[in-house]
Amino acid sequence: MSAPAGPAPCSGRTATWGTCWLRPRTWTILITLNWQVDVEAVDVRNCGGSGIVDTNTAANGRAINNTSVNSRFENNFISDSGRYGFEVHDSDNSVTDGYLVNNQIASSGADAIHLDNAAGWNISGNHLYSDGGDAIYASRLYGTTIYGNHIEDFGLRQASGTWYGIVGTAQGGMGSTIFNNTISNNKGESAGARYIYIGVTRTNYGTGYLSVTGNIVLGVRAGDVGLSFDGGANKLSVASSGNKVARAGTASRHDRNTTLTSGT
Description:
Helix content is 0%, strand content 44%. By secondary structure, it is mainly beta. The chain folds into two domains: 16-107, no CATH class; 118-264, no CATH class. It has a nine-stranded parallel beta sheet with strand order 1-4-8-12-15-18-21-24-27, with no helix packed on it. Strands 2-6-10-13-16-19-22-25-28 form a nine-stranded parallel beta sheet, with no helix packed on it. The protein has an eight-stranded parallel beta sheet with strand order 3-7-11-14-17-20-23-26, with no helix packed on it.
């Protein structure tokens, strides 16, 4: 692939595939279905769309009929993206079992981390701050691990809507874990918006299983919700224990078709 005129190629310790240019507000790092991609020590700034995208969709808009698993994104600094900082765009079930570890993602226009398909992903050790949307959005939780992330200032400057520190939907069958994360909103919250620090909004089919332990949530105001679980039309079984929620009006709640216990 030849470079368009103007941008400088990204630099890092490892090679990348796809498009990797740093011209402000134009290009992104695009990974299209490669096995065991390794993207490390790259500084991605001022992308007009998402900073790094791992996707099953080719440039012509068609899904590719193979899989992308065991990819690793580590020690990157992604800042000032117009949309998401890191994105998994997966219209099928192709981009799974990846590692997003020890990255810094700041000042995204929307979510810091947005996964259309979170199945098998390990999302850990990331520092996420000053992002305009959710800090971590993880759809289709299935054998997913979300732990040890430090989250500050999600839903920043939003005048309305509901914003999450960590939010996901669960698949039936294989369970997932959310543990040892720290979540706060130090820069404050807008009066017209709603903030939920950890939430699962539905189970997509069957019965979803989830363990939520050892998280620290520091809310800002009485309307904040620390932990929120909702199975929707399907069942959700949650073991929740050892979490510390402070300064939130509602520490924990569970709604439709949800069984909440402290585990065994």
